[in-house]
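Researcher: I've been going back and forth with a colleague about how Putative MFS-type transporter might be arranged in three dimensions. Neither of us has a model we trust, so I'd like an independent prediction. The organism is Lachnellula subtilissima, in case that matters for your notes. Sequence below.
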Amino acid sequence: MFPIWSKSALDGTSRGFEKDRVVLDPAYLVKWDSNDPLNPQNWPVAFKWWVTFQLGMLALVGSLGSSITTPADDIIAEYVGVSREVVVLDVSLYLVGFAIGPIIWAPVSEIWGRRVSILPAVFCQALFSIGTANSRNVSALFITRFLAGFFGSAPISNVTAALGDMWSRETRGTAISLYAVAVNGGPTLGPIIGAAIVLSPHLSWRWTEYVQAIWGLVIFSMTFFFLPELYPPVLLKRKALQLRKETNNLRYYHPHEHLKLDIRSILSKQLSRPLRMLFTEPIVTCIAIYASYVYGIMYLTLEIFPIAFQEIRGWNPIIGSLPFLALLIGVVSSVGLNIWNQYRYNRISRAAHGRLIPEARLPIMAFGAVILVIGLFWFAWTAEPPSHWILPCLAAVFIGVGFNCIFQQCLNFLIDVYKVYAASSMAAVTMLRSLMAAGLPLAAKPMIRALGIGPALSIVGGVAAALLFVPFLFMKYGPALRKLSNSRLKPRGIGKLGCCEG
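Model: Here is an independent structure prediction for Putative MFS-type transporter. You can compare it with whatever you and your colleague have in mind.
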């Protein structure tokens, strides 16, 4: 069903083909045939779900690595000789790597495809996790954590765009709902797994990273053999090469094989595109700011929950990490809302004669924004005794629901708006949100010690309340902003020398 491409079809060395001398005839432009089995959109549904599962597991590798060491922070701080405030950098530097990585990985995916941009990076992340486990000083620890985050950001940045390659807009929301559980479940599962390792009499803190490396290598091995390429331009390029070989007709072509890949072009177009979109695309800028703050709140909980449940209530590390399950329950619970929203979106799209209506995805984001604010204020004023412990746990469920509703609809909205540039728009958002997530945990302990949990989290909730306008802004002014964005990013086609200009 899925072709095993010949070596010449993969490397562009089809016999007798000299792409600089070929006159490009539009009649021989390679496109998808009707019901083309090579088109990821036409793959069997069962196979799509198998691929979606693999992509979700790749994303879980990256997200789990961000938090699995947090229960060992006090032990690590004592071992390397730093304060408890400084050791938080093991999470923050990992997330700085998350911020920088997408600038590289998203353009790589838009040139060479999804597999090349994800799998080697996941393998390297596993290697640097082993490096962290074998660190003997603070410098080695922080450097390897940063590099693990840099490589671990590849699936986080590119998996959503890969799902857009495979699933139609009518079904993509459901797939992204399950993918979002993997991405957002990682930071909540990490502390639980890490606490179990740290309290084991037979394992040291180093095993938090060994377990992360083993998990990464297992998923890498599975996807190396079973994950197909999904990026349509790369697949059409391979199809053109195969047609030239089979027919001996050198006129078959696809624009993607004529991309300029000189250093100047890569720097000025591919690598700079996420940054340009972040600073020149109003939609990306606003979504990035809002999603970044919400994402930062998720990582803020990595520091707040241990204070609330272990330091203040006196729970041991394993019991004290269980409230993260409440956060995960909230994330999972929101899947039903997001799937319902996908069916609602389909009805609206059909009524509009099949047109994309990105704004139709946003009511659930607005709902999630309100629920998140309620959860933050609820947690702020019930985290400490005499309030019963179930109250902050219920508040954590609200935070999880709100976070995932916002997070997923941000992804769907950007894919609908930017289509072929979805990976670059995701990279821009991933970069900013990771920087926010790196910074907020550093402020948690000083802020709580100075103000207390109630006032400190009330400030966080107040900022979230001030940003409530974002989804409503896009619901009202989204179409006008989309027209402006589409005109800025419209590809310029094929130039005189047969090079794709974009």
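Researcher: What would you highlight for our discussion?
Model: I'd start with this: Residues 52 and 175 are 7 Å apart (CA to CA). After that, consider the following. The mean pLDDT is 85.
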